[in-house]
Specification:
By secondary structure, the chain is of the alpha+beta class. The chain contains seven helices and ten strands.
């Protein structure tokens, strides 16, 4: 779910910057992506983003609860694939469909853009889709936590494409019922990672909630690993390498 405004957004983009790739920004309505690719693909990227935005906006007009619901909604087999995947993953996580929107746009857009660049990194409000031929490090931004930007997730090329999505109860303007500074989920599906990040973050109110929230996240099929930061406390679980 989109979580980053102003400084936070710029901060994330600095962290994901790599000199071997070309950075390019795509803005379509509320969707604000930063894409790293092997060449300038802004024109085709904008067309792809507009397509998915139109599908999401059109479905919201047809079915307003898709945007408003804080709980899962029933599947609709007649919809575009991005809508189906948002409904499917948020049902697994137990949250409303729009909890997965940033990860979904990054994932669906990223997979299409692989036809134009063998490597793609898309950052959408702190939610990231990565397909890389070299090892990357993604630093975890956790607001005012003393651990913010001190911990990185190592992403190996063989594990990509992969989604790394973050939810926070203290950073950004999106609705959260938790108090974690950062709850990061790693999954093959960025749509799923975004949905589960929201659900896991909602469960963290204090230190004792970290371990059970991470266990909940890992129990969802498709989740590879998770990290949670609350103040000076950190927990991690699953197939994840930190540095």
């Amino acid at each position: 779910m989109a979580k980053s405004k102003g400084y936070q957004k710029r901060f994330y983009r600095e962290l994901t910057k790599d000199s071997d790739l070309i950075g390019q920004e795509i803005v379509v309505k509320e969707t604000d992506l930063f894409i790293f690719a092997e060449k300038d693909i802004r024109a085709v990227a904008e067309k792809i983003v507009r397509k998915y935005r139109a599908q999401i906006d059109g479905y919201i007009k047809y079915r307003p609860e898709f945007m408003a619901s804080l709980e899962p909604i029933t599947q609709d087999d007649s919809t575009p694939d991005i809508i189906k995947e948002m409904i499917r993953t948020t049902e697994l996580a137990g949250v409303g469909p729009m909890a997965s929107v940033a990860g979904a746009v990054a994932e669906f857009g990223g997979n299409e853009l692989l036809a134009y660049s063998r490597q793609i990194i898309i950052e959408n409000g702190g939610d990231i889709f990565i397909k890389s031929s070299k090892e990357r490090r993604v630093a975890i931004y956790a607001g005012n936590s003393p651990l913010s930007n001190k911990i990185s997730i190592i992403v190996k090329p063989g594990d990509t494409p992969i989604g790394i999505c973050t939810s926070s109860g203290t950073v950004g303007h999106s609705l959260s019922f938790g108090k974690a500074d950062a709850c990061v989920i790693i999954a093959k599906s960025a749509t799923l990672a975004d949905a589960v990040a929201t659900a896991a973050c909602n469960r963290i109110k204090e230190k004792k909630d970290i371990a059970p929230s991470l266990e909940f996240a890992l129990s969802i099929q498709g989740v590879k690993g998770a990290v949670a930061i609350l103040g000076k406390d950190l927990g991690s679980i699953g197939d994840i390498e930190l540095a």
